[in-house]
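Encode chain A's predicted structure.
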Amino acid sequence: MARIIGHWTAGNHKASDTDRRAYHVLVEGDGKVIRGVPSIDLNSGSIKSGYAAHTLNCNTNSIGVSMCGMAGAVEVPFSAGRAPLTQVQWNAFVQAVAALARRYGIPVTPKMILFHAEVQGTLGITQRNKWDVIRLPFDPSGTGAKAVGDKLRREVTKAMSGVNIAPPDPVPAGGVGRVIPPALNTRNGPNGEVTGALREGTRVEIIGQNGNWLNIETPAGFSVWAHRDFIEVVDGPPALEPTKPDPRRAIIDRIRRDLDELETMGA
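Encoded structure for chain A:
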């Protein structure tokens, strides 16, 4: 096998029968890795019956690996649809690609490990307006076929060298953050609809976290979501006030002991 081509299914987070017939390996929304129906060997050499037809005119010696999701996605203006790719799914996808590259001796280069969206530009094989994968809903910092492809190749290289792709560091609830960019869109949920924008330097309270998305409270008191890459945590949650002994409690306890003693003496 000469290369690995990454995709999304444009379906739901679970692999359907159609999905399983189209790809060699699939990764569901919760990170579960599923084997497709076709054998990888069927895509080696000459075309054989039952091969995985995952990339137009580029299936020979190519392994198709796909993330399940992005049903109803729209490229412009971007919408991730009803089943956006997830961080845990991406991490499992990277590990699966790394394992296949190691197994088949495939070098991590733009021509050997790439997304479907890169095929036409990198290999010169015309495709039918495929844009998987040029956007990662959980990570808006990189946009475009090359940017996302480069991210994949960087992380696959790390995975092959034994470096685990760690999940995002937790951000403590109750902390204070500061908006980094000149204008930061706020949303009604992780990768949800835009509800407004905050200016650079605005301080917000961190309420919670979902992967790379932070639930924040704005100065106006609204609960919204924003990507963690664009919020600098400047202060942690307030420390708990130390519990101070109540001097009245000690006096009451002493009086009760004295009364108990007097009652005992009277008996």
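The CA atoms of residues 20 and 36 lie 4 Å apart.
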